[in-house]
């Protein structure tokens, strides 16, 4: 009825209204003319929307979320981003060219001198010759002096003075010592020389500390002054030093494809040593937060796991830690630096009981079922056995699943040794498997203090530090206090404290004999320039439980 008047107006006034068949024919002709394009260069007229669109018509709308996901995933993969972060921190040493090689040879002759004879006797043909000639008559052919004449990236060349029985003076012979691996930089040469130190007694125990200062090499071993680790709570600067040191070691290990996926970290200054009354759970939580966020910032999904009850509850030092992890400030709220990285963990749980959305940082317990298929890094806090319960039964399948899917699992301060039962009996069945499992983890970071005894962990005499990204060098430090003649501590008097390297080893721990020789029980040095620094954390940095 609405169309008939308009069509009638287009006709002559005297014409009669069109019939229904005429109206249909005119409408059909109009549709045909609109549907046909006028030419190649003109755009077709839009067709009227159909009354009932077929299912294919809504298919293009589904492509919109795909474009959003593509925009989110734009950029390099998370592992490549992590490797770029690690590479950006790398410091390069001097190339092993002729001037650097000459400077190193001069340095070794001045600092080590004839002590390098131990290298000659242990690693050259001349050393084997000396052993054969002195087999039946000791002292008949004795090398006495050694001087490094030259070196390159593959060999050290020595001139050796030999005392032969019945001859006056020393006979000078030449000896070549091939390096374990070719070196192109000063750092690579230093690592090769440290590996030549070998077992105890080849060179003086202090030779490793001399090699740390090799000309042209990087300083990746120094510790800052004024740590005062026997005074808790620590200042924020001291805590941040440990957090950053551990994070960089963990990131370098995860980014290295040659590193095993099962790793461990040992960091036990007094605030993180669970065996001491100075243990501070807040420091452990802050350490884990910095490490988890450090991985998440590169796009790696990180799961933080704390063991749950094992029959007799949880260890006292881990009591409430799982709850505190979800309540602490992760700076992940709306508009904050890490917004959205925790997902919905810190939001109220849904009333319908559905699971909360996980973010790049998520939480769990110890067990095989806790590992997600998309997890990139799993951090386990201080796993340890209890009386009557072994963490091995829960941790082993969890680690095996992580390794099977390429997920890095990192244990922080693990205690995987067996615990005596309530009757004082140690379990024997499966003990060899548990010991082998505990030894299978690659240690990527190690820091511990050296004390004068085991009963009273005071004063701190020194420290041992190792980081895998620095060539796995274990550096032994002697703690010295300057500015007072006190034999215990001069912190109250405003003295200055520093850690001096006294030994370094690659591939092994320093023996108790070496530690005793290099770290005396006297920690105070001569009177010098006093640098007054605050020993403990300022009041505004302390937590309620400090």
TrEMBL record:
Species of the source: Phaeocystis antarctica
Annotated DUF1995 domain residues: 240-468
PANTHER family: ADENYLATE KINASE, DOMAIN PROTEIN, PUTATIVE (DUF1995)-RELATED
Protein name, entry field: DUF1995 domain-containing protein
Record's compositionally biased regions (Pro residues): 45-57
Lineage, opening ranks: Eukaryota, Haptista, Haptophyta, Prymnesiophyceae, Phaeocystales
Record InterPro entries: Chloroplast_ADK, DUF1995
Low complexity composition-biased segments: 10-19
Region of interest: Disordered: 1-77
């Amino acid at each position: 009825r609405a169309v008939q008047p308009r069509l009638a107006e287009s006709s002559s006034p005297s014409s009669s209204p069109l019939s229904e068949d005429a109206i249909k024919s005119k409408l059909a002709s109009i549709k045909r003319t609109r549907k046909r394009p006028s030419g190649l260069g003109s755009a077709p007229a839009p067709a009227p929307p159909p009354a009932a669109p077929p299912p294919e018509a809504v298919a293009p709308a589904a492509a919109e979320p795909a474009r959003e996901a593509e925009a989110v995933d734009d950029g390099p993969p998370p592992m490549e981003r992590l490797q770029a972060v690690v590479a950006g921190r790398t410091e390069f040493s001097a190339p092993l060219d002729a001037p650097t090689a000459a400077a190193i040879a001069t340095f070794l002759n001045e600092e080590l001198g004839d002590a390098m004879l131990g290298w000659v006797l242990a690693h050259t043909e001349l050393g084997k010759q000396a052993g054969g000639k002195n087999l039946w008559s000791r002292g008949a052919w004795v090398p006495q002096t050694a001087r490094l004449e030259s070196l390159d990236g593959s060999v050290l060349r020595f001139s050796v003075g030999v005392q032969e029985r019945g001859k006056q003076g020393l006979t000078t012979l030449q000896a070549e010592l091939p390096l374990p691996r070719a070196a192109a930089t000063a750092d690579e040469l230093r690592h090769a020389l440290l590996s030549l130190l070998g077992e105890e007694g080849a060179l003086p125990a202090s030779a490793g500390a001399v090699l740390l200062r090799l000309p042209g090499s990087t300083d990746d071993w120094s510790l800052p002054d004024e740590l005062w680790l026997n005074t808790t709570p620590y200042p924020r600067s001291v805590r941040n030093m440990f957090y950053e040191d551990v994070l960089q070691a963990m990131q370098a290990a995860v980014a290295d494809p040659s590193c095993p996926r099962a790793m461990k970290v040992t960091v036990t200054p007094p605030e993180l040593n669970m065996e001491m009354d100075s243990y501070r759970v807040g420091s452990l939580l802050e350490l884990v937060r910095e490490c988890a966020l450090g991985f998440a910032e590169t796009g790696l999904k990180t799961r933080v796991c704390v063991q749950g009850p094992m029959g007799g509850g949880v260890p006292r030092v881990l009591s409430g830690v799982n709850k505190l992890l979800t309540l602490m400030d992760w700076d992940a709220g709306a508009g904050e630096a890490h917004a959205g990285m925790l997902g919905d963990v810190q939001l109220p749980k849904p009333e319908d009981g559905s699971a909360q959305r996980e973010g790049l940082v998520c939480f769990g317990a110890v067990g095989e079922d806790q590992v997600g298929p998309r997890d990139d890094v799993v951090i386990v806090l201080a796993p340890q056995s209890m009386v009557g319960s072994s963490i091995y039964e829960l941790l082993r399948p969890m680690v095996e699943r992580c390794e099977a899917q390429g997920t890095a699992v990192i244990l922080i301060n693990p205690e995987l040794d067996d615990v005596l039962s309530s009757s004082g009996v140690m379990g024997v069945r499966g003990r060899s498997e548990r010991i082998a499992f505990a030894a299978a983890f690659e240690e990527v970071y190690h820091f511990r203090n050296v004390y004068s005894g085991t009963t009273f962990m005071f004063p701190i005499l020194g420290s041992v530090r190792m980081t895998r990204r620095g060539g796995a060098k274990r550096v032994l430090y002697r703690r010295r206090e300057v500015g007072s003649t006190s034999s215990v501590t001069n912190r109250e008097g405003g003295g200055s404290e520093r850690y001096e390297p006294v030994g370094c080893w690659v591939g092994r721990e320093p023996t108790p004999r070496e530690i005793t020789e290099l770290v005396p029980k006297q920690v105070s040095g001569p009177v010098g320039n006093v640098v007054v620094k605050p020993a403990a954390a300022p009041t505004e940095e302390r937590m309620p439980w400090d």
